[in-house]
Amino acid sequence: MSLGDLHEVLPDDEIAALLDAAAKPAQRCIRLRPDRIGIEPLPMAVEAVPWFPRGRLLVDSSLRPSQSLQFAAADYYIQDAGSLLALALLDVQPHEAICDLCASPGGKASGIVESLGEHGFLLANEVIASRASILRYALSRTGSPRYAVAQQEPEVLADRFSGLFDAVLVDAPCSGQTMVGRGKRDSNAFDTKQIEHSAKRQQRILLEAVKLLKPGGRLVYSTCTFSVEENEDQIRFLHQHFPDSWEPIQSSQLAKWASPIEEGCYRLWPHRDATSGAFAAGVVLKKELDATHDISNFRMPLRLNRNDIPHQRKSSVVKPEVDLSNLGQLSNLQIKNSSKGFLSALVADGPAEILQRLFEQERIVLATERQNILKPEYVLAMLDSGWFQPTDAIDISEKLAIQFMLGHALPVDSFAESRAFQTNMGKICPLNQAWKIITWHNKPLGWAKYAGNRFNNHLPKHAILPIPPIE
Questions:
Q1: Pick the catalytic residue: 29, 224, 265, 429?
Q2: Greater confidence, 79 or 434?
């Protein structure tokens, strides 16, 4: 195990305490959704996260915050307290266009969308296709459509969107030393070769990330590791590679956690801060970077996948337009019917230069139609009322809501004593209307489809939760 450069940022007499704390699970944490704060009490006792106003640490970390209907209804997101450091430093402003370059599983990306306000936009990028579905699920839970999801190598994305973003977040792949205590990494995370490999990859990603920024834009770099080589040294690399182009972000709110060796860098430690640990650094691009600067030696190997290139070939079969009029009314969205049988959307007031560069598959898919059968997507059910007014929404009891979140169908007879069949317009829902949004405390949980004596459950696999049933 290599501890080498830790002595630069931590007193020698704390190293043993760090290693002991890093080997243990950290205190559980949630991030509150801003429009749901204070609506009803949380299902567990919590205390504030000092570096992020909407963060809450669980007093009893033996509890599982995912086993709650409030989590199912997206009142909060489960997120390590350390990862909130990067969100605090990013300090999202309501009007901004932001790129999250390494976005899955979506904790930071969904936190950004929650903070965008009425006019912002996020491009969330995830190279690994298998991780994109969990990213889209996390973003769906925000209730906002102010995002798109790309799946491209950083250099491809940087070429498409050069100079268009107010801020870029690089939550870089790293050796993952802070994840050892969570059982997601083994002690090889401290191996010198692993650290060196990660550091070189991080440099390549950073050199592409800076191309995405507008002059005056912010770059926030974060990792879940302790190594100086993967943290402060990466910011020094930027300063050396682009002399006089950057100034550090000095956050008075985060001054307590400032790195002792590099301005604009901040650290959390397991033995000090009730978290697994984290690093975040912020710099502001003072002037446009020299476009002729040669970064070819740092280029990442280009691994194009089918999502890297827009599909130019058109289907010979013309499919009918997907019609959502029976499901509800959309507002303030750019709607597009695909020749492949799906309906996608983007916010109407998003940044035009970014929106016009998006590929069809990067938009938000609201519904699909196959063999004349319409299937609304989970994201459509979860949209806030300012974006989608559903025709039919059934508000169900706690017991039924738990059954629904377990993935079960709901018998029609079970609604006999509920205040069901009310639309949000106050009208009586026809019992045999095909698609209905299931809600709990008037907050959406997902879609169900009428099938005679039951409503079939159409939750995506990511949304199914092991909530203990009520006896």
A1: 224
A2: 79
Q: How far apart are CA 5 and CA 226, in angstroms?
A: 9
**Cα–Cα distance measured from residue 137 to residue 463, given in angstroms and rounded to the nearest whole number:** 8
> Between 340 and 35, whose confidence is greater?
35
Q: CA–CA separation, 141 vs 74, rounded Å?
A: 6
User: How many angstroms separate the CA atoms of 324 and 367, rounded?
Assistant: 8
| Rounded Cα distance, 457 and 436, in Å | 10
Domains of the chain, earliest start first: 27-79 (3.30.70.1170), 81-298 (3.40.50.150), 328-379 (no CATH), 391-463 (3.10.450.720)
Does the predicted TM-score (pTM) go above 0.70? yes
Active site residue 224: yes
Q: What is the pLDDT of residues 99-158, one digit of tens each?
A: 999 999 999 999 999 999 888 999 999 999 889 999 999 999 999 999 999 999 999 999
